[in-house]
User: Fold this.
Amino acid sequence: MSGDAPASGPVPDDERGSEVDDYTGQIPRVDAGPGSDDGGAAAPSGFGDGDVADVDARDEFEALVDGLDLGGADAETDVDVAALVAERDRYKDTAMRVQADFENYRKRTSAKTADDVDRATGRLAEALLPVLDAAEAAYLQHPDEVGPLLNVLLGELKKHGLETLDLESQPFDPEVADAVAHQPGDGGEVLVAEVLRSGYRWRGKTLRPAMVRTTD
Assistant:
């Protein structure tokens, strides 16, 4: 009968390769036996064509690295570093010289500026001397009225460096006094007997010698 199931019994070996596993639904793998023509032994499990390519690439890279002249590169690098250090030292020396020159220039400029200011203010103080002489002459005539004004004027000028030479009864010094008269004495040391016109010192320098009468 055509609807009957096929007869049971062992399956021949040449038909097993086409069988489908009833449980997995896959065709069972047939291992190649001795003498087969599959080109050699099968690749190890988990090692595919991609892994072989990676090994080849790594071998090529190692061969390339082995071929580099690393010793020559190090020597060239050492030469470049030495040149850079030498150039840095040259720039450093130049900068230090420029800084020293600038410092010297600044000191010279500051000293010159201070001298210019001293000379300018000294000329101003010298221009005020006739005013002081007139104030002193007026003081001799009207001490009560002129005295306070003269004291204020001399005090303000003193703040800026003007000093009145106090020479009366002091040994005569031609550096700070001009003797216009002499009164004979006992023949001892020459002294300043009287100040006829005040002398002034400006910031440690004699601005105008005093006019005095001496005695010995």
